[in-house]
Amino acid sequence: MSTPIIQTFPLGTPWQTIDPFLFSVYHLDHFPKGNGEMGPDPSLLKGRNLGNDFDPREKWRMYHGQTIPGFPYHPHRGFETITIVNKGFCDHSDSLGAAGRFGEGDVQWMTAGRGVQHSEMFPLLHDDKENPLELFQIWLNLPRAGKFAEPHFKMLWHEDIPVVQEKNARIKVVAGNYKGTHAIDPAPDSWAANPDNDVAIWNIHAEANSEYILPKGSPDANRVLYFYKGSEIYLEDRKINPNFGIVLDPSEDVTIQIGDEIAHLMLLQGKPIGEPVAKYGPFVMNTDEEIQQAMEEYRLTQFGGWPWPYPDHVHDKDKGRFALYPDGKLVEKS
Prior knowledge:
It comes from Flagellimonas taeanensis. Pfam families: Pirin, Pirin_C. The protein is mainly beta. It contains one helix and 26 strands. The protein folds into two domains: about 1-15 and about 160-275, Jelly Rolls, CATH 2.60.120.10; about 20-35 and about 70-160 and about 285-305, Jelly Rolls (Sandwich). The strands form six sheets. The protein has a seven-stranded antiparallel beta sheet with strand order 1-20-17-22-15-12-11, with no helix packed on it.
């Protein structure tokens, strides 16, 4: 009897991915009350290991910020970042002069292309209660033809992102086509911009003690389902525990039986780019020589420099959700 399951694997940090995806990480941090200056109220001088952002023993992590959680300015070249903030907020600033505060379900899609610097800080806006943060960051590769595309910054506001409500499940369609419901267009030079590449990013919440059917995709796509929170699920009578990834045959529907808790699932899917990948930290090219060239160019140009006053730049505490684009266009949300 055939099975749609090709492989299962435990979820580490980051998650294992398959072409066209390069990297995916999930953070759930129970940040404490703020100190009035968007940092944590508890002292950072009492045993915190600053920068150890992937330590699962900690309820909350300071990442690489010294006063405010987050990632101060750093470069990228040759791929895209897709940042999904389900809880909490992210303050974005970049070398293009773009900026924004997004969260509570918003998604940022940034094409690094030929090179960009940005910072991603997580301001603790509440001083009277905890500041939970739930965040996914996904790296989607660019093909050789797109490695030097112009950098692009796009916001997908949660009010506009399609959500499909089925009998037993709720599906947030960040990218792709879910049973005829199409996501917002991605960045223009993205591998996801061509529907023939069948790129899908779906955040699925399936109800406890129910049945959910994952619809099939293109037979040429790579498909991975990440089970990151819940009790257990059963795929074709095979039990899968939480914190496991499942590589699936995309050519057939998959029936999933949900255990005693809501199953939180992330699907990443897409036709492979099928080109050589050379990686060094925040640079992703096709050859090691191109990586060396990227590092040298960054050393000489800083990808346009840093127009903000601090490497860990954040916006005013009372600022709402907004996006300031490189052309000066400002979009403000309630």
